[in-house]
Amino acid sequence: MKLSFTTLGCPDWELDLIIQRAKEYGFDAIDFRGLTGEMNIYRLPAFQQNIHQTRDQIKEAGLEVSCFSSSVHVFSDEKFEQNLAEIKEYSKLCSFFGTRYIRVFGGGIGETDRSAAIEAVVRHFKELTSVSKEHGVKLLLETHDDWTSCSDVKAVLEQVDPDAVGVLWDLHHPFRTLGEQPEDTWAALGRWIEYTHVKDSRVLPDADGKFHYCLTGEGSIPLANMYKLLLRNGYNGYYTLEWEKKWHPEIENAEESFPQYVQYMRRLTN
User: Could you cite one Gene Ontology molecular function of this protein (predicted)?
Assistant: First the structure.
């Protein structure tokens, strides 16, 4: 089992501490989603003039960069040029760090008809991947926002290059927000799933259906069964903790949630 975490979970940590703690806690990799307040990390010295030092630090710690998580919303026409520029920058980082994946969102579609939205996402993917493929990079569409349903994601993946676009299965969102069963998600998307995000939550009584994030294994997301499903179907990608401390400052700190995640996940293999 390969374990990673997104840097959303430790938004105040400097790079040195991220690398130190990743090794200390028993992770195999880091998924970069912002660093010390800057979401587009390619703008930071650590990923520009000091990039060789950063790569050496990560490698010497026995770690990899499992993914660069972008802010790209593929559906958007208005931000297409901005999205294209972001994919170019992250593709260069992937090439330098030996990283295969860039995470992208589908994005909100508003009042747009679903078929038209699918057409737009497919069109934009074809243009974005003309850049990423030059660097041997695959874009991963996350089951998130208006693209949480497996049927909507499948409709896109059936029309794009499977060597250029895959699926990031956020284990939480389809189950929690749509009630989609893991077996149904896998049946629809399994051939494209190459990466996962892991998080847990619980719905409190009298909370009007609202959920609250909690430590891994302490909620009601069937993570153990999801792991067995993935294992049974030959999945060998990363299990990446997406602890959204940056967006939800009230949840536990990384010093508690990160090692607890590693311990929980390692127990699943026993």
Answer: isomerase activity
